[in-house]
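Lab notebook, design round three. We kept the backbone fixed and only want residue identities now. Task for the bench partner: fill in a sequence for the structure below.
Input structure tokens:
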């Protein structure tokens, strides 16, 4: 079960899905406010982990492995913390494990996000794709179609105003968890200190840093990301 990051959609996992589909059944979600899912909720206490839980139950999935990127990783952590009976393993790709910001800063960030979405949606698909290639020249060409589509679909209200305290979530996870993070110098959010704190908080957590990658680890160092994920997935896998 794969959960994407802010402004992406479920199809943004396609390259990973193709690499794993011989060994696993893959479900790629569109989060609320993204892709073809419902618009962003208006209520402040919305819990995206609950959405994932409802999908798992509706599809009749039996304790799937769950993986998420960025905000999707935070949603995945929320799922694992609140609904431990629904998951077997957890993979978090550079979640926003950051200090809680003042409300004024959060409001400013949300307004900047609205403006960014408006900018994306005022451009043509070709212009959005070109922007992506200019800012991320090392990404594989296969990444850009879904990435471009996601920018056209995202709701301007999709950015959450408040984030849960990540330490609280991590302390509640009772299943094997792989935290994958990149280099902060390349835009990664998780620092070495945060990764160490996550492992100190919860002995179920293993943290792996991927070099030559920032926030979009699977897009910037696909082979290393896939190797770590595959090793974790195959551990104790029933045959």
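Proposed sequence:
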């Amino acid at each position: 079960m794969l959960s994407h990051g802010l402004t992406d959609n479920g199809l943004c996992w396609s390259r990973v899905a193709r690499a794993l589909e011989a060994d696993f059944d893959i479900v790629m979600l569109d989060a609320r406010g993204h892709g073809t899912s419902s618009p962003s909720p208006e209520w402040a206490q919305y819990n995206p982990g609950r959405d994932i839980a409802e999908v798992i139950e509706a599809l009749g999935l039996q304790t799937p492995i769950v993986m998420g990127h960025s905000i999707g990783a935070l949603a995945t952590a929320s799922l694992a913390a609140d609904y431990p009976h629904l998951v077997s393993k957890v993979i978090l790709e550079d979640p926003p494990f950051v200090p809680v910001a003042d409300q004024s800063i959060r409001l400013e960030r949300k307004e900047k996000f609205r403006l960014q979405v408006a900018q994306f949606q005022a451009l043509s698909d070709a212009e959005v794709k070109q922007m992506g290639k200019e800012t991320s020249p090392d990404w594989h060409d296969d990444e850009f179609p879904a990435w471009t589509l996601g920018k056209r679909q995202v709701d301007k209200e999709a950015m959450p105003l408040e984030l849960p305290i990540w330490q609280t979530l991590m302390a509640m996870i009772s299943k094997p968890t792989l935290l994958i993070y990149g280099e902060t110098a390349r835009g990664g959010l998780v620092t070495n200190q945060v990764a160490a704190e996550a492992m100190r908080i919860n002995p179920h957590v293993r943290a792996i840093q991927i070099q030559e990658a920032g926030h979009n680890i699977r897009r910037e160092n696909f082979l290393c990301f896939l190797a770590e994920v595959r090793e974790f997935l195959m551990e104790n896998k029933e045959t």
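Keep this in mind before ordering anything: The first strand starts at residue 2 and ends at 3.
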